[in-house]
Amino acid sequence: MSEQRTETKLVAKPFLKWAGGKSQLLPVIMSAIEPLVSETKTFTYLEPFVGSGAVFFEVMQQYRDKASDVIINDRNEDLMLAYRVLRDKPDELIGELETLKKQYTSSKNDEIRKSLFYKIRDEFNSRKADSVQHASMLIFLNKTCYNGLYRVNSKNHFNVPFGQYKNPGIFSGENLRSISQLLQNVHILNKDFTELISFPGHREKTLVYLDPPYRPISKTASFNAYSKGVFDDAEQRRLKEFCDRLSKNGAYWLLSNSDPKNHDSADTFFDDLYSGYYIERVGARRSINSRASGRGSIKELLISNFKK
Questions:
Q1: Are strands 67-73 and 43-47 parallel, antiparallel or unpaired?
Q2: pLDDT digits (tens, 9 = 90+) for 135-148
Q3: 3-75+191-304 has which fold?
């Protein structure tokens, strides 16, 4: 990478609102990562569950001159298509978003806006639009749906209702262009996480950050429908086996998940599953919940194969 590029400061923030986004935990996550990357000239970076990309963006903004090989992945095909469009066609995407925003803001009538929302939702679920239009509809729906939630049913249809926002901040062209620059030369994949075991290289230090769909902390807090597949306890165990393989391959990994003890002090699922690794409990705040009473302070887990 050129000197000019490494010296230019890019400020990029997540372009989607995503349940479980890591913006609030960035300081503690980055403080754990910093000792690993500060002492090396280059490193490989892998995120198997990139989601809205808060940690990815922060790593790239702070260490893109050192990140020689970067791979982001998610099973949500709509999300990863949006990342590819952002990387390759940012101006076309911004143009489509400007059109959608103009259509939405041209009327103050909630019924007209609601009708537009469901029309676009139907078009999105038909999957007949080109990649740029599809990505723009994803962003539009995310910013105008109820509570900024992304949820799909078993048919992979987005089914979140209209949000009735008066003046939603649908997008920032400056932010999208900054994201596009950070995504240059990044491998953008749509695979099962186990297929990524061969990607971390052995030429240099490899850092893997894992932010899977969280294990529900109660019977009523069961949302993890980011894609049509279900991420249940069997998947959590499969992920732990993946982490074991990463360790065997010499990679450093840091994993986030919910703390079952928020609801049941006797629930030691993760304490038992990752008993051979380092487990830290950190404070967090739930921001997406159907009821305001459910948006409170909780503990989350940071699990790693290295001592922080």
A1: parallel
A2: 999 999 999 999 98
A3: Rossmann fold (3.40.50)
